[in-house]
């Protein structure tokens, strides 16, 4: 599937919501007709289940029993199981697009999704959207539900945030953009309180961000930011990287999955006021353990002085690609 909506439709088929013991069929048709009837059932009375149909208790047991042929695999998400059980209790939700109202968390991982389409707006109660390990390069914010609190886009091809920041969901608390193709400073300007007033957690790890000073000036406006991941970016190679961030963002609790203790904050106190220590350069030490398949220069040094043998000079070049 190329879009999120298409991937979700495929997901519904995998869950078998339209098939026994979920869905609508001969096993529960009288309950559906009763739900459509305007005549209310008297309180305290339960209508007998007609022959050939099953009670909701029996249908739920078929879903929950691990030995049942209709049970989901143990590694399926609780959301999947909950969705199936709700449909058993209220099969009329499968009519039209009412099933979208049941979904608060949507996880579509490694399904070849390339587009966050406007069909996502049908999920009017959606709070968590996980789209990791797909092929998404752009996200249009107008296609995101306003109720969204978690947006995870790790391991994609995102290289520009302009469309995402046009009308971002203001209630968002976590934004995951790790392992993408972001490079600054054109992208670093998008991480301010103007776009993300309630952001608590931000993952920008393993991108190509280079401007530490520029990024910190933007992040310092995020008053609710407590968790930040920047490891894997070129700016993380700067010698004073961690200390400068710890002192520049006093409300930060976790940096690169490491908790910031009071002792560390005291150790780097005042470093934020010395931006001259931030150099746009990094030092790498590369050690070569062993080289095979090349002539040993010492073999040519074994020739005796005055020997008429040919003199061979060897020069080697080593290229590093980062």
UniProtKB/TrEMBL annotation:
Keywords annotated in UniProt: Leucine-rich repeat, Repeat
InterPro entries the UniProt entry points to: Leu-rich_rpt (IPR001611), LRR_dom_sf (IPR032675)
GO cellular component: cytoplasm
Superkingdom of source: Eukaryota
PANTHER family attached to this UniProt entry: LEUCINE-RICH REPEAT-CONTAINING PROTEIN 51, NISCHARIN RELATED
Protein name: LRC43 protein
Organism: Loxia curvirostra
């Amino acid at each position: 599937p190329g879009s999120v909506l298409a991937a979700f439709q495929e997901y519904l088929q995998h869950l078998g919501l339209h098939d026994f013991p979920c869905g609508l069929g001969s096993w529960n048709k009288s309950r559906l007709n009763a739900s459509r009837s305007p005549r209310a059932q008297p309180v305290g009375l339960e209508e007998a289940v007609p022959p050939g149909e099953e009670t909701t208790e029996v249908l739920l047991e078929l879903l929950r029993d691990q030995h049942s042929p209709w049970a989901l695999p143990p590694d399926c998400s609780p959301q999947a199981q909950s969705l199936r059980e709700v449909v058993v209790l209220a099969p009329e939700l499968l009519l039209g697009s009412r099933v979208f109202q049941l979904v608060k968390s949507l996880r579509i991982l490694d399904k070849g999704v390339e587009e966050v389409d406007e069909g996502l707006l049908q999920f009017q109660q959606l709070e968590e959207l996980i789209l990791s390990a797909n092929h998404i390069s752009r996200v249009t914010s107008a296609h995101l539900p306003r109720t969204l609190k978690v947006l995870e886009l790790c391991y994609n091809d995102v290289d520009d945030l302009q469309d995402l920041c046009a009308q971002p969901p203001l209630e968002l608390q976590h934004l995951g953009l790790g392992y993408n193709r972001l490079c600054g400073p054109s992208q670093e300007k998008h991480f301010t309180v103007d776009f993300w007033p309630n952001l608590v957690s931000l993952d920008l790890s393993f991108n190509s961000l280079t401007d530490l000073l520029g990024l910190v000036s933007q992040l310092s406006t995020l008053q609710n930011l407590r968790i930040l991941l920047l490891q894997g970016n070129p700016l993380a190679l700067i010698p004073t990287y961690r200390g400068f961030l710890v002192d520049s963002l006093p409300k930060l609790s976790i940096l690169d999955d490491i908790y910031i203790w009071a002792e560390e904050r005291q150790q780097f106190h005042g470093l934020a006021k010395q931006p001259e220590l931030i150099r746009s350069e990094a030092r790498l030490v590369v050690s070569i353990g062993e080289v095979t398949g090349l002539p040993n220069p010492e073999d040519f040094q074994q020739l005796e002085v005055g020997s008429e043998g040919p003199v061979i000079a060897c020069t080697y070049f080593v290229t590093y690609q980062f």
